[in-house]
Amino acid sequence: MGYDHLVVAPGIQLDWDRVPGIAAALETPSVSSNYRFDLTARTWERIRALRSGTAVFTMPGGLIKCAGAPQKIAYLAADYWRQQGVLDQIRVVLVLPTPGMFGVTEIADELEKVVARYGIEVHKNSELSSVDPDGRRATIRDNAEGTSQEIDYDFMHVVPPQSAPDWVKTSPLSDPDNPAGYVQVDKHTLQHTRYGNVFTLGDAGSTPNSKTGAAIRKQAPVLVKNLQASLAGQPLTASYGGYASCPLTTSRDKMLLAEFDYTMKPTPSIPVIDTTKDQRDMWYLKRYGLPFLYWNAILTGRA
């Protein structure tokens, strides 16, 4: 590649300090986050230890890495508590910034059944606005109603707001109309909208799709073809349709697979299975099929 072209692919950053109290709360044993590698063991320890009380699971507004993860941990925890016979002693609260369970109607409908099965209390259009770590109290803001409420927790799993790295935000490449500061690109060609010699791959781009590894898998060949065309002075003909995939584990042995694009309609890649239903065969796909595909096909460039 010539020196006159640039591919920007730095990923995104976790903004722990954007919600008052989160950083301090993570220093206490009652709060954890699987978005920090060093805390994943604590998450499991606290789930196993809880036998009664209130468990809060939060998701921030805006685009984040693997937007299904904040829900998956809530379902896995509830499933474990059900197996242990203590679920009816635990108030499980799931805080979602969206008006529905998921942006795809078919998936949202299925997830409504999942939360009903576990008796999970869902706060939609809501976000964690602050944490009192000493009092073990979370303040939840309802963005639709403009109100807030405090919930005392015995365990809380938090997910931080996320954005482009600070150095991207302050650079000419960022989208001036987006406070998250993503690199401003055409959502189909992945070329910068103002600098024709700049392309972006992955989470740091302003494409309005879910930020998943599946999305990058579909973006990569588009970027390569369009980059080669740009270097040759030819029109950009490759187009990314916004494909993303989110495996949603709903219990220890069930999963559904959300596959969708910019239209927010299901785009299943497995024709013989209804991937929008949480079922055991989908869990086998998650447990065995997807890791094999990742290591042997995606990383080797065969898929």
Return the average pLDDT rounded to an integer. 94
What is the N-to-C order of secondary-structure elements (H for helix, E for strand)? Answer: EEHEHEHEHEEEEEEHEHEEH
Strand order of the largest sheet: 3-10-4-5-6
Q: Would you tell me the structural class of the helices and strands?
A: alpha/beta
What is the strand content?
A: 15-25%
Walk me through the structure.
The structure is a single chain. With 303 residues, the protein is an alpha/beta fold. It contains seven helices and 14 strands. It has helices at 22-25, 40-49, 69-83, 105-118, 166-169, 213-231, 280-298; strands at 6-8, 13-14, 31-32, 53-58, 90-95, 121-123, 126-132, 137-142, 147-152, 155-157, 162-163, 198-200, 244-251, 254-260. It has a five-stranded parallel β-sheet with strand order 3-10-4-5-6, covered by helices on one side. A three-stranded antiparallel β-sheet has the order 7-8-9, with no helix packed on it. Helix 3 (69-83) links the parallel strand 4 and strand 5 (90-95). The radius of gyration is 20 Å and the shape is globular. The mean pLDDT is 94.
